[in-house]
Amino acid sequence: MTGWISIDRSIQNHWLFKEKRTFSKFEAWIYLLMEANHSKAKVPIGNQIVTVERGQRLTSILTLSDLFNWSRFKVKTFLDLLESDGMLEVKTTSKYTLITIVNYDFYQSEQGRNQHQNDIKPTSKQHQSNINPTSKQHQTNTNNNDNKDNNEKNVNNEKKKTTAFDFFQDNGFGFITSYNLDDLNYYLDSFENDSDEIVTASLKIAKDRNKVTWGYAKSILNTWLNANLKSIEQVRAFEKQQLESKKQNYKPFVKQSKEKTPKWLTDSTRETKTPEVDENLEKDREAFIKRLNSKWE
């Protein structure tokens, strides 16, 4: 089947779209296509301005999870799947997820579609280099030069870093609500350096102590803020110092017995009674033996 149709974003206001349901992978993909910016824009995120280019969408794993009625793990797996197939690129930070639709213009106009077809003709050598399934270059626009392709390949191959949001969601601290999302962002903005590592460290300590609650992690973060710690190295040094201090002040507790010790057990010596000899009994015994012997004489 060939040809294409344009779908207006207003379709999301239709009662069929608003139906409460679990999205299929296809529906989720169509949603990402519809939600991508059609023009460049600047978006304020916390204390920074993020530039969102045409064909990109600024969102979060939590937002997509709620919309698709999926778990956050399923959303991340889905995005990884699309990225591995060269359909999109994902950039995740501690504050947002930026999705880039690869070859966005292919889906938006007849002209872009025709240009795309010309660029990937099966008989062209360019086709072999640009859409090799194992090549990251397929994820970039086929009109880009080789140098840009290589740069983007290196960026895409960088190991993805686990963020505080990821650790929170994956280690039993519960769902990220609008309330604790604001909390997380507050602490991420409160530390001058290594804020993501510091917040993650507080979550790890809480988990290691079997106190898997955001409230406990917050108490740790407040302690570090009160100590005016400004980097992950200072946090590590502080925690090491606290641990050494506890070791030095530790005194083993020996429980005293409440039972009374018998007095005789505490005496170093005990008096041994000497049995008194009954002189009359001894005389009677000797007389009896004497009579007994005389009887046999």
Automatic annotation (TrEMBL):
Signal peptide: none
SUPFAM superfamilies found in the cross-reference section: DnaD domain-like
Highest taxon of the lineage: Bacteria
Biased composition (Basic and acidic residues): 146-155, 256-279
Residue span(s) of domain DnaB/C C-terminal: 165-238
Region listing for Disordered, in residue ranges: 112-155, 249-279
Composition skew (Polar residues), residue ranges: 112-139
NCBIfam families in the record: DnaD_dom (TIGR01446)
Family that this chain belongs to: Belongs to the DnaB/DnaD family.
Protein name: DnaB/C C-terminal domain-containing protein
